[in-house]
Structure formats: C-alpha cells, structure tokens
From TrEMBL:
It comes from Pseudogymnoascus verrucosus. One of its GO terms (biological process) is cell wall organization. It is found in: Secreted. It comes from the Eukaryota. This is galacturonan 1,4-alpha-galacturonidase. PROSITE patterns: POLYGALACTURONASE (PS00502). Residues 1-18 form the signal peptide. One of its GO terms (cellular component) is extracellular region. The lineage of its organism: Eukaryota, Fungi, Dikarya, Ascomycota, Pezizomycotina. Belongs to the glycosyl hydrolase 28 family.
Length: 440
C-alpha cells in the first residue's frame, strides 16, 4: 500500500482548519452555568459528529456536603436537576461518597464540581458493593451515563488511592474501583478538573459516543507502597472521543485504546512517568472480536516512560494456566501517531504482536488472529534512555501476513549513545523505514 493511502486515511480523521465548539456554552448565555467552559477541539478535529448544542440549564441544585457520606444528597440532586439542571458541588466543601451510585440515567445535566469529591476508604464495603464490569474484571465507585452531560468546575476528584495501593501489597486480587467511569453516555464533555490517586485506572470511557475531554490534570502521588494500574484514560466500545490539552503524571498507560475504540483523537497531552499511549491489549478473550480503528494521537510529550507509542495484541489461543490471555481476533487499522516527543523513554515505539509469550516458538503454538495495518509513526523526536540503547524501537509481527503498511516518517529519536536501531521481525523493513539490526 502506498504512503499516500495512509495519509489519505489519516486526513479523513482531520479537517485541519475546522474548529468544533462542542457545547454552545458561551459564558453569558442565559441558563448556561458561567463555570461551564467553552471547549474548542483543536488543532486537529474529528470528522465525525461531536456534541454541539448542549441546551441551557434552567435549574440549579447545590448539594450540601461535609457529612460522612454525601451520596444520598448527591443522588437526590441528580434526580431533582435531571432534564435541564445544574448540579453544583460548592467550592471549599468536601463531598464524600460512601455509597455506590449508578448515575447512568442522566439527561441534559451539568455537573459542576468546584469543591472536592472524594470517597470513603472502607475497602471491604467497596469491594462488595462497587459496580462490576466483566471487562478486565473492573469495578467502579460510580458511573455516569445517559445523554448530554457536561462535567467541569475546577475542583478535585480524590480517589484516596493509597489505602488501595497498601491493600494491593497484601491482596493483589482485591477489586480496586476505577475512579471515574463514563458508561453509555451519548454526547458530553469533561473538563477543567483535577484528579488524584485513583485506586485503579483514573478514567474509563465505555459504551459512549461523542465525548470531548479537555484541560484535565491527573496526578498520582503515592507515599509508601506504589500506585497500581493508574491508566489515565481507557476507551472501550466507544467512538468519536476526543481527549486533549491535559497533563498526566501517573504510573501506567497515559491513554489506552481498549477493544472497539474507533474515531478517537488524542492531542496536546503531556504524559510523565507512564507506560505510554497504547493500542490494547487486544485479543485477550476467547471468541471476542476487538477492533481499534481511526485513531490519531497528535502532539504528545512523553517523559520518563516505559513506552512512547505502543500496540499490543494477545496470542490466538489462551495459555492453559490462566485461560484469560488470548484467543480473541480482530484488527488494528489506521492508527497515526504524529508529532511525538520522547524524553527518557525505554521504547519510543513498541509493537508486540504476541503479547506475553516468551519466544517465537511459543507464539507459533498460539498464532495471533489479528491484522495490523496502516500504522504511521510520524515526526518523532527526543532521546530514549540507556535501557535498550542502541535500540529505540521494537516491532514484532507474529507473521508477515499479520502486519501490513506499518511505517515511520521523519523518525529522529536517538538513544543516549546517539544510535537509533530497531529490533524487527516479520516486517517490511523498507516500508518501516527503521534501521532494523536485530530480531524483535
Ligand atoms: C457496556 O455495555 C455492555 C453491553 O451492554 C455491558 O455488558 C457492560 O457492562 C457495559 N459497561 C462496561 C464498562 O463494560
Ligand atoms: C502541543 O502541545 C503543547 C502542550 O503540551 C502546546 O503548548 C503546543 O501549542 C501544542 N502544539 C501544537 C502544534 O498544537
Ligand atoms: C515525572 O515523573 C518522575 C518519575 O517518573 C517524577 O520523579 C517527577 O517528579 C515527575 N515530574 C512531574 C512534573 O510530574
Ligand atoms: C466490536 O465490534 C465488532 C463489530 O461490530 C463486534 O462484532 C464485537 O463483538 C465488538 N467487540 C466488543 C468487545 O464489543
Ligand atoms: C499447555 O500449553 C503448552 C504449550 O503452550 C503445551 O505444551 C502443554 O501441553 C499444555 N498443557 C496442557 C495441560 O494442556
Ligand atoms: C544501521 O546501524 C548499523 C549498526 O550501528 C550501522 O552500521 C548503519 O550505518 C546503520 N544504517 C543506517 C542507515 O543508519
């Protein structure tokens, strides 16, 4: 396939000069909360539909906080202010959630978090009562879903993660809740918020479409036992999602595109301490079809990380010990990482077509049922680190048929030695454009 084809595909994602205002929320519009920010999607934008008119809200519900468990008061406000209202968590007030909340019934609501939203640390209660999801055995304190929901306010969402990191040391299988789950939301924004110390991932966006996330600040600050699995955002069964203009300081994936993430734009992120921006893992579950398609990751700064741009796919059959590490099928198509600066990153590019297996023979015993095509790594700059010097990239395709049209363009990353070599297998080296001097 020609490079121009990749670029054409990439360009289908972008309309360079277009500027989308996802919510008609100009300050001063009657009924629109003054604190609701106006969000511009840019510099790149999605061609697909994004939330546009989010009608004014005509009712305001201030939640009274400061008690040992403010969940009932918050839930009551969401019922009272649903269908056209504005739920406010006031500045200077701490709101503690001690009871699981299913907020997937929301419609035309603004959630204005000016104060601090936090959670009780009763790990037994949460493990027994959290919302449970089959996907990756995950669970949540609460989930937001419905239609046309804007979340903003400048406040803090504090997951009180340390108690969960401490629990993990004694009990690695403890069900640690995700901090913020958006499940089944059609049209919405989340912006101008600080999130700290999630027990598990910061954010999961699942079963959702037309969501814009802007100007968020995510920070993990563990004292003592280290934080675990603190992914910034994971998208799952979702499309038309924008994540932009945000700062992430964590210890796991900065953003991760899980199964069935399509039409995703991630731009202007500053990630530190993470595992990079990843496609996958895909193919983990027997018989399940996973698709990641039309993803643009633009203008990333990635520091002190395990990976820069990453794609990982499980083998085509589960291992016979855990039984949950492979057996799915699907494809990855039209994924573009454009303008990507790395500083102190182990693998600026890592493509793993047979995740978790130890060698080529073990992979051949469970050949992956995935096709990876039209992937472009463009305008990469910066320096990796000593870990794999002189190697700065590893591209491991399980077979020549599994990968098609995987390319770099203007890839300038060097290892500290000044070298820039790659480990590659089953890949068209001329097309890839890296100096493949060893087998991945
Ligand atoms: C997403 O939708 C599926 C199908 O309705 C459901 O089983 C699942 O619980 C939903 N949420 C998540 C996070 O997977
Ligand atoms: C890239 O992102 C940074 C923030 O990380 C921003 O300051 C800069 O303006 C962006 N550049 C472009 C070309 O959008
Ligand atoms: C970035 O991450 C490193 C460790 O990975 C940490 O020491 C440093 O404080 C972080 N910097 C910022 C600005 O968050
Ligand atoms: C992903 O989408 C495909 C095609 O629509 C569907 O067959 C598959 O079940 C979906 N997978 C998941 C994990 O939802
Ligand atoms: C487990 O899988 C390995 C190869 O992946 C195979 O050699 C072994 O026989 C299997 N064990 C069982 C109990 O099926
Ligand atoms: C590739 O790496 C080898 C080993 O360092 C070096 O000799 C060669 O000049 C490099 N080729 C290119 C095209 O950079």
């Amino acid at each position: 396939m020609q490079l121009s084809y990749v670029l054409t595909l990439a360009l289908q994602l972008l309309a360079v000069d277009a500027l989308t205002v996802p919510a008609s929320n100009h300050p001063g519009v009657p009924g629109v909360p003054k604190t609701r920010p106006q969000i511009h999607v840019g510099p790149k934008t999605l061609k697909t539909k994004l939330p546009r008119n989010s009608p004014p809200r005509h009712k305001t519900c201030h939640v009274k906080g400061g008690t040992a468990d403010d969940s009932a008061a918050l839930l009551k406000s969401f019922h009272e202010c649903n269908n056209g209202g504005h739920v406010v968590l006031d500045k200077g007030v701490t709101y503690t959630i001690g009871t699981v909340m299913d907020l997937t019934f929301l419609k035309h609501v603004d959630w204005d978090i000016q104060g601090t939203l936090t959670f009780t640390t009763d790990t037994n209660y949460w493990q027994a009562n959290s919302l449970k999801y089959k996907f990756q055995d995950s669970s949540a304190f609460f989930a937001v879903g419905g239609k046309d929901v804007n979340i903003f306010g400048g406040g803090v969402i504090d997951g009180k993660g340390q108690v969960w990191y401490d629990l993990f040391v004694k009990e690695p299988t403890a069900k640690r809740p995700l901090l913020f789950v958006i499940d089944g939301l059609e049209g919405g924004t989340m912006s101008n918020l600080n999130m700290v110390n999630p027990p598990n991932w910061f954010n999961l966006v699942a079963n959702s479409t037309n969501i814009v996330i802007d100007n968020m600040n995510l920070k993990v600050a563990a004292v003592g036992n280290p934080a675990k699995n603190t992914d910034g955002w994971d998208t799952y069964r979702s499309s038309s999602i924008v994540i932009q203009n945000s700062i992430i300081d964590n210890t796991d994936d900065c953003v991760s595109f899980k199964p069935n993430s399509t039409q995703i734009l991630v731009q202007n992120l500053r990630c530190n301490g993470s595992h990079g921006i990843s496609v996958g893992s895909l193919g983990q579950y027997v018989g399940v079809v996973d698709i990641v398609e039309d993803v643009l990751v633009y203008n990333t700064s990635m520091s002190n990380a395990g990976d820069g741009a990453r794609i990982k796919v499980f083998p085509g059959a589960p291992d016979n010990v855990t039984m949950n590490s492979g057996g799915g099928s699907g494809y990855v198509k039209n994924v573009v990482y454009d303008k990507y600066d790395v500083q102190n990153v182990d693998w600026p590019i890592e493509v793993t077509g047979c995740y978790t297996v130890k060698d080529a023979a073990a992979c051949a015993a469970r050949p992956p049922k995935f096709h990876i095509s039209d992937v472009l790594f463009k305008d990469f700059t910066g320096v990796s680190n000593k870990k794999y010097d002189p190697y700065v990239a590893t591209v491991a395709c399980p077979s020549p048929e599994a990968c098609e049209n995987i390319r770099t363009e203007n890839f300038q990353v060097k290892a500290p030695s000044g070298k820039s070599q790659a480990k590659c297998s089953n890949i068209n080296v001329a097309e890839l454009g890296l100096n493949c001097t060893a087998a991945a």
